[in-house]
Amino acid sequence: MSEQYSLEDSEAAIILRKSWQDMTQSLRDTLQQSIFERFVQPLEATLAEDDVVQVRAPGKFVAEWVGDKLLPLLEQDLGARMERPIRIRIVAKPIERAPLADQPVAIAPPSVESSQAFVPMERYRFENFVIGHSNRLAYSGARAVAEELGRKYNPLFIYGSPGLGKTHLLHSIAHAVRVNHPGITVAYVTGQRFIEEFLLALQNNQIEQFRRRQRSAGVWLVDDIQLVAGKERTQEEVFHTFNHLYSLGKQIVLCSDRRPRELFLMDERLRSRFESGLVADIKHPDTETRCAILLRMAERDGIAIEHEIAMFLAQNVTSNVRVLEGALIKVAAEASVADSPVTLDIAQHVVETYYRAAGTAKPGHPQILDIVSRQFNIPIDEIKGQSRKAPITHARHVAVYLARELTGDSWKHLGAVFGDRDHTSMMHAYQKISELIITNRDLEATIRRLMRDLQPEL
Ligand code: ADP
Ligand code: MG
In testing the pocket of ligand 1, which one of 133, 143, 164 has its CB within 8 Å of the most ligand atoms? Predict the structure, then answer.
């Protein structure tokens, strides 16, 4: 027993070490084994600042994959275990250094980098974005604004179902601005973060600082703006920020999962502001584009895959690009576990196991209804039925939310699936849950779990 006081033993470090161990233990049970072993097991956590945990991943690929796929989950889960909100910063370390199984959690020196500076995801660049019929307009709009800030299209509003590349384009703009206009600050905020920071500022009487921060942007990128719909005060704040930046000729780009007109409960003034520039949609890519995307992703990640195998995956995994990427990662992971190149056999096996089993690449509505019915203990008939009893409506809303998130089907189609309902009621249901999960941790966790169960990629 050492009597020396060491930083490793500080209370915060001990709590982190324990929480991290507990969390990985539980992830071992929930994630696919090959995914767990490749992406979670080798991670090492250290405390960087008070509320920032630095997570080191072996190599860039793992770092980015974890950042892309697991970050919100890790932040939530670890934060809950440590009983305080934390942010995770993922850094890549050289692959050669094998992780030590029980390396102690140490206090890292505070980072010099300002927590405000937005660092776009390395791989979300225009060069890595595959252009097809489905996304050409959004892509060229994004390229144009990155070159001619504030002059060409302002604002640029991009909308499309989840997983089709909206965030990718926003980050690409940030990269391009850094190169083309090095002096200009890029601010990136998600609707959710805007709400949280705004509310925090309200509580702490720091509205002025909050405004200064938001309004100092040279380029303002807002992701998932649909999340502020229905939040009156926050919308008001978005409106003012928007007007302020706009009047100064700053470039504004907004992304949403629906077009401005469908942004429910959104202030009419804001909606029309959003529509005043270019409104561009992203649709689901066709098979050719899916194949091209797969090949590009494989090249980017150093995964050797033949055209024929990529085509096979593209034909069989027809959901959004995120799911497609999941399929590629699974194929690569299985190949690497088997110490084999990527073969058609492996691809077929992955498709059979994870995608065919459900009948389609994305979970079907029957599956979603089934899982929600079991979760809330309410028969499917009633979920689809006309009852307005609170527990039944709640289950219905959750099912609609999951269906929209996971299938990206149109509101109209969802309406037909959910007992011949109007498409606006589908949008309401979705909106309702989107808002609830911001404040209701339990519901958020439940939804996250249901999604994981329904979605083969995690
Ligand atoms: P969204 O924000 O619309 O939900 P993302 O931008 O997060 O979607 O995209 C999901 C994943 O799919 C990301 O890894 C992204 O790089 C990838 N992706 C989407 N569209 C394309 C594309 N056209 N070319 C290359 N990768 C893409
Ligand atoms: Mg996104």
Answer: 164
